[in-house]
Amino acid sequence: MFSLDSRLRNDSFVIGRFDLSLLLLARDANYPWCILVPERGNTYELYHLSDEEQVQLIRESSRLAEVMHNIFDADKMNIATLGNIVSQLHVHHVARYETDPAWPGPIWGKVPPKEYTPERLEEIVGKITNALAGEGFTALGEGDDFTIGNSPKPTIDC
Fold first, then answer.
1. In the prediction, which pLDDT does 83 show?
2. Containing domain of residue 63, as a range?
3. Is the pTM of this model over 0.85?
4. What is the CATH number of the domain that holds 114?
5. Which positions ≥6 away from 106 have C-beta within 8 Å?
């Protein structure tokens, strides 16, 4: 059974779903920062996914990275699966700029997280979900298991 890690749940908004993964937006407005989480239980490393799921995750990650690069006009896309604090497999996608507060170093711990205004959150979510709309992706909204701006339900059958 899939259960979203509580730290991911508390530190992000669930904004959509690919065929394999949930799409999260980090609650840090310092950077355009999305996270993919494969909806598979007890999955901590990429090799815990089947061969087909590994390929699917790469497809979803590539699509997300390209969309983020284009809509945010990023200088560089940082994509990483660290898992040192949150062991559940998740893939960070951060649009980076030579002018951002952490450039060229890692973003973690450089500056305090910045809250989204409701207007900016709606704008960012709209840009991302509209650009991804189509085959293999569904934006989530009111009435879904996960809703924008709310903590998701703690468990989902996969």
1. 87
2. 6-139
3. yes
4. 3.30.428.10
5. none
